[in-house]
């Protein structure tokens, strides 16, 4: 099963197995990863699942769609080129090696 690495605000790393079809946000919630609140439950309206894709990540990610890009405009933390909403990252084989970083204002 693919593993996603979450780098927390304090630099701690959590590695969680994420089954195909499960979002990076859902896995974080079930794994009690601090800093991903997902207040809307993944319906693309809160942006509290914001993450940065770490430079060490080797995952091949699908591009964000227009709805995700629009919501990323309103994230609380700095928006960066590597910003993504973790509820929109649904695990598939090409995403093996994904490393995400929790923004410093979350958690
Ligand atoms: S969980 Fe609300 S936008 Fe991702």
From TrEMBL:
One record GO biological process: P450-containing electron transport chain
Family per record: Belongs to the adrenodoxin/putidaredoxin family.
An annotated GO cellular component: cytosol
PANTHER family registered for this protein in UniProt: FERREDOXIN-2, MITOCHONDRIAL, FERREDOXIN/ADRENODOXIN
GO terms, molecular function: 2 iron, 2 sulfur cluster binding; electron transfer activity; metal ion binding
Keywords: 2Fe-2S, Iron, Iron-sulfur, Metal-binding
Name of the protein in its database record: Ferredoxin
Domain 2Fe-2S ferredoxin-type: 2-106
Alphabetized CDD domains for the sequence: fer2
Keyword flag Lyase: no
Database matches in InterPro entries: 2Fe-2S_ferredoxin-like_sf, 2Fe-2S_ferredoxin-type, Adrenodoxin-like, Beta-grasp_dom_sf
Cofactor(s) for this UniProt protein: [2Fe-2S] cluster
Signal peptide from the UniProt entry: none
Top-level taxon of origin: Bacteria
